[in-house]
């Protein structure tokens, strides 16, 4: 290609002016001839290569994304043991009635909801505030941005193990601080709400900085004149934030809410490691067992893969409902503005 | 006037002392305000909050178990750090775990970057039937969490006898719609149609265009996507935890999860393991932090 390029665009050298018609008349004619010769191959290339470029993604998606998702639904209608995962026996909707009758399913659903709320709402609010500050003119602004991402670089496993120690009942740093300021120590692992709060803290710690960067990016894309005209209208900083920043961020906020909601519905590693010896039960009273953990317990501890599949599909349906709700709410918001 | 004021270049710091009301009003109008002391205090708090658990991991790893079971928790380093790191390295099979994780994360990141770039290029710059619908599918797949598919994947792994084999972790991780979306957004802006046209006029086939035009133009975004995917794969937990075992061929995360179990776990040892597992990525972030931040923000604008 490079040699041909040289002959076609020799006077300009190296394609310095893209869009400029190529060289002299003679070379253009030769070019046309060559193209006519190649035209059949050319057409085939133009028609099919786009599909060749996107097909690896879709093939992988079919094999490891869509097929397993649908097959989960099929498996949920069977009895499947972990020890013989290929041996399936039809049971109809039994798995579903079993899990809907299980109080621990509803307990896990409730825990997932609460941990989701406790982790997502403060996280996004803090991220918004943080992004607002990072949008100021700052000394060493890159330093802060990188530092905010350090928790994101930390794995769930490493973060959970550290927070277990920090939240320790007898010797943990957090209880020591509470003791210093004259408050009672809290049994973080065994309390119903305190354990949810502690698990949520791990999620908040890992994701706040990341979301702040996303908000910051969106804030920087807001045109300056919007602020200028708001200032001319006499809006102070707070009102500028409410009336200019927030409306401009609406799509981004929606995006982070959707992503965080999906993430919150899948929380697994943090509660699993928060009490490593209780493992899948999520605390002695199942007080922080999430749906992800419940799925793991049914499938890999109790060895009922069929029931675990039913849980996965129940989670999928919940996500679809949330997605529809989200779409409806955002449409309402858009219509009202 | 205001535009020049609200977008001061680098020389903004030694600004002329007081130009009166007009300047302050102009400054108030912008999103680019100078930060006051309160802003710096809040930032300092967030900085401490972000870094403290990491620093304390190192502190705890440098102490022994008895010291961690005393009431004022340690605030400064003890002398055991390197001993503990060595024990953790050997106990948790971390050497092999590092090798495995590097293979998994490296293969997965490189493949995702390659496939995402060609697919992103097709979606951004080529015209073909069904493009819009296929792109919608790509976006839709981003909304379905991979965790919901683990049971059939587990059955596949059992059938193929792939447990404790790295391809069992690598292959499912290659499905990555975010990468396709990210590269599409980047190439939409960064790759002018004229350059592709010029290459076409020169008789370049689509593959040649990809090699000689798209890849050079996409290199910055490819690097960022590669780093993001490497981090994601390095930290992936649930799926490796299901198909790899601690004594087989664990990734770092699987090895770390194994450290936390046992009736009288050695806490400082656990912290040493957590520190070892986190350090490589923290180093990457310390070196390439600016680029990674830029990449995340770039991917976010239209996300």
Sequence-ordered SSE layout with sheet pairings:
The complex is a heterodimer of chains A (337) and B (303).
Chain A: H1 2-8, H2 25-75, E1 78-81, E2 84-90, H3 94-101, H4 103-134, H5 141-153, H6 156-166, H7 173-180, H8 192-220, H9 224-232, H10 237-265, H11 269-274, H12 291-301, H13 305-336
Antiparallel strand pairs in A: 1-2
Helix pairs in contact in A: 2-13, 3-13, 4-8, 4-10, 4-12, 5-8, 6-8, 8-10, 9-10, 10-13, 12-13
Chain B: H1 2-6, H2 21-29, H3 37-61, H4 65-68, H5 81-91, H6 94-125, H7 131-142, H8 150-160, H9 167-173, H10 177-190, H11 193-201, H12 206-235, H13 238-243, H14 252-259, H15 267-301
Task: Describe the structure using short key phrases.
heterodimer, A: 337 residues, mainly alpha, MetI-like fold, two-stranded antiparallel sheet, globular, disordered N terminus, B: 303 residues, 15 helices, 72% helix
């Amino acid at each position: 290609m490079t040699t041909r390029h040289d002959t076609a665009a020799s006077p300009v050298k190296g394609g310095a002016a893209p869009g400029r018609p190529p060289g002299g008349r003679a070379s253009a004619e030769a070019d046309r001839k060559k193209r006519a010769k190649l035209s059949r191959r050319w057409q085939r290339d133009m028609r099919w290569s786009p599909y060749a470029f996107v097909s690896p993604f879709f093939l992988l998606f079919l094999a490891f994304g869509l097929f397993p998702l649908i097959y989960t639904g099929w498996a949920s209608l069977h009895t499947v043991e972990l020890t013989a995962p290929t041996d399936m026996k039809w049971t109809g909707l039994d798995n579903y009635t079993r899990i809907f009758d299980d109080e621990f399913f509803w307990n896990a659903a409730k825990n997932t909801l609460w941990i989701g709320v406790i982790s997502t709402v403060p996280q996004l609010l803090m991220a918004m505030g943080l992004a607002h500050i990072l949008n100021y003119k700052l000394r060493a602004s890159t330093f802060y941005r990188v530092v905010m991402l350090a928790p994101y670089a930390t794995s769930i496993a490493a973060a959970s193990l550290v927070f277990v120690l920090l939240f320790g009942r007898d010797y943990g740093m957090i209880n020591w601080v509470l003791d210093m300021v004259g408050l009672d120590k809290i049994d973080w692992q065994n309390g119903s709400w305190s354990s949810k709060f502690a698990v949520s803290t791990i999620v908040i710690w890992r994701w706040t900085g990341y979301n702040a960067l996303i908000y910051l990016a969106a804030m920087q894309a807001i045109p300056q004149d919007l602020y200028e005209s708001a200032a001319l209208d006499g809006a102070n900083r707070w009102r500028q934030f409410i009336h200019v920043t927030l409306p401009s961020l609406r799509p981004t906020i929606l995006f982070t809410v959707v992503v965080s909601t999906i993430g919150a519905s899948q929380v697994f590693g943090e509660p699993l490691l928060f009490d490593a010896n209780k493992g899948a039960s999520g605390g002695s009273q199942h007080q922080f067992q999430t749906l992800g953990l419940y799925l793991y317990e049914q499938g890999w501890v109790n060895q009922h893969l069929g029931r675990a599949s039913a849980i996965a599909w129940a989670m999928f349906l919940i996500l679809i409902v949330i997605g529809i709700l989200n779409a409806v709410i955002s449409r309402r918001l858009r219509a009202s503005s | 006037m205001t535009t020049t004021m609200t977008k001061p270049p680098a020389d903004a710091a030694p600004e002329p002392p007081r130009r009166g009301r007009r300047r302050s009003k102009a400054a108030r109008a912008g999103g680019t305000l100078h930060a006051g002391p309160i802003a710096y205090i809040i930032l300092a708090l967030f900085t401490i909050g972000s870094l403290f658990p990491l620093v304390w991991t190192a502190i705890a790893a440098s102490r022994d178990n008895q010291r961690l079971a005393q009431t004022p928790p340690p605030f400064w380093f003890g002398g055991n750090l390197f001993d503990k790191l060595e024990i953790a390295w050997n106990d948790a099979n971390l050497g092999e775990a590092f090798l495995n994780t590097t293979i998994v994360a490296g293969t997965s990141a490189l493949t995702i970057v390659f496939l995402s770039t060609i697919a992103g290029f097709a979606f951004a710059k080529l015209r073909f039937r069904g493009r819009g619908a296929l792109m919608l599918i790509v976006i839709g797949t981003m909304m379905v969490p991979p965790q919901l598919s683990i049971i059939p994947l587990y059955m596949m792994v059992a059938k193929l006898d792939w447990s404790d084999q790295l391809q069992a972790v690598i292959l499912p991780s290659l499905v990555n719609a975010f990468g396709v979306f990210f590269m599409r957004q980047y190439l939409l802006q960064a790759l002018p149609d004229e350059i592709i046209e010029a290459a076409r006029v020169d008789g370049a086939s689509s593959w040649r265009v990809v090699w000689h035009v798209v890849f050079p133009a996409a290199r910055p975004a490819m690097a960022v996507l590669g780093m993001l995917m490497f981090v994601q794969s390095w930290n992936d937990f649930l799926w490796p935890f299901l198909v790899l075992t601690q004594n087989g061929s664990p990734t770092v995360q699987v090895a770390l999860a194994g450290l936390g179990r046992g009736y009288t776990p050695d806490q400082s040892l656990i912290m040493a393991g957590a520190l070892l597992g986190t350090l490589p990525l923290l180093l990457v972030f310390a070196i390439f932090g600016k680029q990674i931040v830029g990449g995340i923000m770039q991917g976010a604008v239209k996300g």
